[in-house]
Amino acid sequence: MTGAEMPLSFLIYVWYNKEYLHYRGDVFMDSLVRQIEVPIARNKIQKAGLYLVPEQRLDELAEIAADAYQNYPLHNWFTNGVYDPIASKLLMKSTLAAMKDDSVIYADSEELNGFAVWVPLGFTGSKTLPFLRNGGVRLFLHTGLGMLRKLLTYESFAMNLKKKYTGHIDWYLFNLSVRQSAQGKGIASKLMRPMLRFCDDEKMLVYLETNKESNVPMYNHYGFELRETIMIPGSTVMHYAMVRNPD
User: Fold this and answer.
1) Is the torsion defined by CA of 41, 42, 48, 51 positive or negative?
2) I want to staple 123 with a disulfide (CB 3.0 to 4.6 A). Which of 108, 115, 119, 200 is the partner?
3) DSSP code of 243?
4) Rounded to two decimals, what is the model's pTM?
5) CATH assignment of 3-244?
């Protein structure tokens, strides 16, 4: 393989991998990933006929997620065992707004029946200040600080598990949501396959987690392997860590 034929993600991998160079989790590296990998992925998504969601429509995505996450074990745990649609929407709104510049956020179409959020290699957690500025404060005023403690516990736990299986050298499927009224119509497949082809071309691992056992076979269908089943600390919620090797 010549230098010209190497996927750009491999060159970034060389930068990140401790076997080649010391790890650089700094602003320069974050900027490099955003400037190279994210635009390439967005271009692939557009060419596949999918809809890159503009910032002004992120609130609509948060509504889709809140609808899709009804009675989802993790969200129920965040709100003391009772599904809270307001909390779910605020959580997703804050998270999406904080991640919009560093991720690939797209929907099946302008109708927004479902959407996916992918984050490039090097991701170790959401940025605190953007999260708080974009609705996080309202979220904690609504739920109380108990949810903040649970969110911090969960993110630390989830990111440590991701690091265990990928070293953070992965494309991370952060979210996949489809409206309940649109489920069973092939929208999840429409969202997943173009990005998985991109990851195959880039020779990149893909990582995701789910907190519903019934989701595991669906992700198996897309080539993901279950690597660990473990309970989230301080909860009764199971966490399923899954990895997909490039085809």
Assistant:
1) positive
2) 119
3) E
4) 0.87
5) 3.40.630.30
